[in-house]
Amino acid sequence: MDKKISQVQILKHHDSFVCQFYLCLLTTSGYAAAAWLEGIPQLLSLPVCIASSFGMFLSGRKLKAVASLKSRISQINFPQTSADSFINYLEKEGKDGALYMGKGGSWESSQCQEASDFLKCDASSLQRKFIKRRMILKSLKNFRKWIFHPVKSLFTLRKDLSFLIQASGQQWISALLPEENAIWQKASHRAGHMLIVGGAGAGKTQTMIIFIIQDIWVSRAVLIIDPKGDNDIRNAVYFSYKKRSGDTKGIFEFDLAYPERSIHLDLFSNCSRPTEIATKICDCLPKETANSEFSKMGESFLKTVCQGISIANKPLTFKRIYYYINNREKLLVDCLEGYLKEVLGKERFKDLCTDIRIHKKDKMEAYLKAYREFDRNDDVESVIKFADYDEEFIYKRAIMVFQIVEKLATGDIGKLLDPEDASANRTLSLRDIVDNQWVLLVSLHAMKDPDLSRIVGSLILSDLTALAGSRYAYGKGQLSKVALYVDEASEVLSEPFIQLLNKGRGAGFFTCLATQTVSDFIARTRNKAEADKVLGNLNNLLCMRSNDGETHRYFAERITKSTVKSRMVSHAVMASADSFYSQRGTLSESVSETESELVPPEILSSLPNGECFAVISGGHVVKARMPYVSFPDWETTK
Q1: Tell me: the pLDDT tens digits for 378-405?
Q2: Residues 114, 6: contact at Cβ < 8 Å?
């Protein structure tokens, strides 16, 4: 380092600077008093007083410079607030749809230098020392409690000290910022999408909740896909929506674990062609099997079934697709019937049906004979060929695709995805949610059935991609904004989802993803290049505490480098064996600069809960602390 001493060195030698300050003060006062009493000549006392005063001034400056840093290090309280207080703050301070991102400040080269110095010294022991002093002084202020309950007071003090000193992460990281102010991101900068990455318990869900509340408060359509089924998100959604609107009529749930409180979803309403449905279903296959020959053959069979149902003029549902997969001859009969109705006309088709009934002809053979009188239709020919296949041949080659259809057509999920189900209280499409600016909370409960939750999540995102494409192509005027939140995003990653990230901005979508590590995307796609297709579409990054090396490298690549100065002092004394008086010594000092990450990996691994480094709005690096907002349990308060 250069000649200017750092705040970290002042902290490390704090007690010696205090002694220096008081020694200079005592010297100055003594000589001033002696001169006043005429015990020492004034010409002799004046230089000493000036030198002592100058030393006192320098020591005071050093102590003053570090006072705020010392105070911030000892303040480790996690910012907590009630839901009402936080919403009132947003209502008062929020403007123009800007996103509140906690309190903090810009992280620059000076903070990088101080962080490097802290990592070199025993920063944790300094922190513990200041915390102990602060807590003991605070506790001793209550003399009455210590006099009448000394044992209890001592036990409480020890308990508080143990809790504070063992708090998660290194609290001194935030103290490196000169001051903390509210951080707001412009609404226009959110169109670049956002990634929140952090280990378990680092505060990803709480950060998403803070963002979700703000989007609900400004009356945006909000769609939340939560593979975990987190109850905190549900409580926050209901509380904030009711606070804004006075009721919860605009909140809808799709919950795999609680079908009784779920709406029925129509995931085919945004498809313009029957074959799109088959593609959507096949996009749910795991990446390692999606490009296999069997998967492609299964997709071809599925497209044939969907095309046949469409020719039969029947609505496409998962149950109907599953039924016709297992009843291929029935599919052929219904397909031929629908085709002949169109080409023969109403009266001629009626005559054909009468002839079949009177002469007791086989319906399939009669339909095929009538069909052969017309030009070949490629879609009908595919259905005929599909019906002629051996059942074993089909299932050996398309078992993976058919298993997905079976999962979606049976059980509770089969009812929830069937618009024709008689038990449906209300059936909605994603277009209904977006156009009416409602809130949809999708809880997948992945720990119960990981495969089913992945498939359903991928299907919903695929339908949302189709909706975004429709809004992009046919939307007129200023499109309403749509906020999409996907927790544990790697669990539901698919090709349509990547397309949504690519082109969602033009359709008015703000997307926020959360994951534990960047490596999760690589593991899901089985290819780093494919993972980069996802990450390359995320312009805003919030990195919370993470121990993953790939995450550290990804974050470092997004920001500029910095330089760190290091000072080395060496001295040596040499004596001659021939003469006792022949001695010499050397003293040298060198300053070197090395390139360093602006945010060292050791800092990213040591962040406390709720704190993050963010790269936002085109490369600005900020250090932020998110508040913890507590919401009442909705089931007990509604």
Answers
A1: 999 999 999 998 888 888 888 888 999 9
A2: yes
